[in-house]
Amino acid sequence: MIRTIVVFAYVIFSMIFLVPFGVIAMLFHFLGLKKPMAWFVCWFATGWARFLIFLSGCTVIVTGTENIPKKGGVCFVGNHCGYFDIVLLLAYCGRPIGFVAKKELLFIPVLNAWVYMIGGLFIDRNSAKKALQTIHNGVARIKKGGGMIIFPEGHRSMGRGLLPFHPGSLKLATMAEAVIVPVAIKGSYDVFEKNYRVTGTTIKITFCNPIDTASLPAEDKKIILSDRLYSVIKEQLDAWA
In angstroms, how far is the first alpha carbon of the chain from the final one? Predict the structure, then answer.
């Protein structure tokens, strides 16, 4: 219980305390210093995430970081075990990344600012038009050399294993013709959701071999690509079983 209190206190107070610094970074971003500010926020978020992992008492085993492109647009496509997945990817991707968050987070003070500052895009799944605009914004970011995270399952698996991928979930990657790095994550559900208290556990992350969607035939970019990614991630998860 003490560990849970410490972790939540760190998250809450660090987010509140660091908001002014984030606002300054955003101002520099809008003044034309987008690239250096993106890397500054990445460096900051990496340090924040790694210290959070340290406080949680978790041991993280990371493999395959050599498969992460150093530059150019990229999509990280992974299984979604629990809340800790975003923290893990912030800690170990090694480059600026964003992700698509549900619009409800937009109405949570402080958290909404941080989601935006680290590259999050809010999506309204009740409006096809607004959702498509969010996808286009993500595509534009990737084409400019940025990175985005996609969880094709659509929601957290909560210990139920790898769930089916949603149709159209890879549209962000295929429209941008981005390089996809499949990511397999095991153990993040056990950190908090399993017992609803922070528990130090062993987490494994593997960044698998990248897939260049620009070189794929158009007919392969829907079902075949989705099935291929599902197989790659499941194979890695099964290897850990």
Answer: 29
Please report the domains of the chain, with CATH numbers, ordered by start residue. Answer: 2-240 (3.40.1130.10)
pLDDT by position in tens, the chain (length 241): 889 999 989 888 887 777 776 666 667 666 666 666 666 777 888 988 999 999 999 999 999 999 999 888 899 999 999 889 989 999 999 888 887 777 776 666 666 667 777 777 777 777 777 777 878 888 888 888 888 888 988 788 887 889 998 867 788 888 888 899 999 999 999 999 888 899 999 999 999 999 988 877 777 777 788 889 999 999 999 998 7
Q: How far apart are CA 17 and CA 51, in angstroms?
A: 16
- In contact, 82 and 188? CB cutoff 8 Å: yes
Q: Model-level pTM? A: 0.87
Collapsed DSSP state (helix, strand, coil) of residue 71: coil
> Closest Cα partner for 53 from 78, 80, 81, 84?
84
CA 92 to chain CA centroid, Å, is: 10
- In three-state secondary structure terms, 32 is coil
CB 204 within 8 A of CB 187: yes
